[in-house]
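Question (not urgent): is this output format expected?
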Amino acid sequence: MEYEELREITDNVIQLLQEKNFREIKRLINDLQPQDSALLLDEMNEKDILPIFRLLSKENAAETFVEMSYDGQELLLNSFTDAELKAVLDEMFLDDTVDIIEEMPANVVKRIIKQSDAETRKQINDILKYPKDSAGTIMTVEYVSLRKNWTVKECFDRIRKIAVDKETIYNCYVTDDKRKLIGTVTVKDLLLHDYDTPIADFMETEVISAEATDDKESVAQEISKYDLSVLPIVDSENRMVGIVTVDDVLDVLEQEATEDISIMAAVTPSTDTYMEQSVWQIWKNRIPWLLILMISATFTGLIINSFEQRLNALSTALFACIPMLMDTGGNAGSQASVTVIRGLALDEIRPRDAFKVLWKELRVSILLAATLSVVCFGKLFLLDGLAFGFDYKWYICLAVSLAMFATVVIAKFVGCMMPIFAKVCKLDPAVVASPFITTIVDALSLIIFCFISLAIVPPLSAV
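Got this back:
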């Protein structure tokens, strides 16, 4: 639904609230998709959210609740009666319940656990025990398990009996009496075989699976790589413990992409949206990185101070070229790092490919450096020197252009190698992206520029 259309419905609901026309509100909100209902509720005043939520049907209420912001969920959880809380929890899938528990304060979590039945409490506790960011924390235990000696008819009977409580029934998993995963069948497979055919005759025994302790991002990559809609999750002994569905994976990929973008922009990642964050929270997320980068940038200041007098003795025009060199080097390094980080994230590049990446980036950097150097020489000599009359002699232009060439090559080397080095050290490659690479390249470009200028300008100026 378009934002303007949803905004119009929201205004209409507000008007109907003032008129106390709850019948029409009930009709309107139950005709919406859960995602749209959640957005509508998040737009409401706090005092109006609960009365409107209570007008949703039982099924819509649970689906809408899952899609709401954490602030809206917490408000409702604190307002629910025990009966209302239990009704919503009974309609939710277990993985959604766990996601909410992980974000809520202790007093709310206690109420949720209290209103869950014994089996659900056990399953919640089992999932919460898995390491942070592991596949076990995003899986659901609501899957269909079958036995290999069952016939197609027996499988359909089983599916009809338990399907209402399962997150997906299209993919079914064949396990033995110890829950070990031995195969998989789809509903399509069942439909294409006679009722009296044992599923052992046609089940797929080569099953792609992941362990519950695997990183959830690697699980997302597996699902993407093999074009799966669901991936079975097993323990260390290949016993079935749950499944991860594609909707869970989309959430993981979005979260990981948001974290990487934040880190690459020198901001501490946050699960809250920009509008949900307070000024102090934004300050807290940004200031550590700015302090680190400010301190690291002092190295460039030290380099400039070390060479200042000698460069001034040659030509003051040399100093005017420093920002251009540093910016070009930083941009060149960022280009290479972003490309490599994306390749690492999608498993297109692996640490063992380091020399292939370096060889390719070396050739690319030479072409780019040559182009930029020629343009730089022409710009300084023709535009800045002849057209605007600045003191850019040909030998100064040559020194800057050679420094530009070396800077771009070095920047590409640093930009492509640092993410791979971080991956080898089991660090997040995004952490060493733009901010740190730019700082390193700035320092190197200054050193290169100063030494080239001191080596070239004095002898050529005498020619």
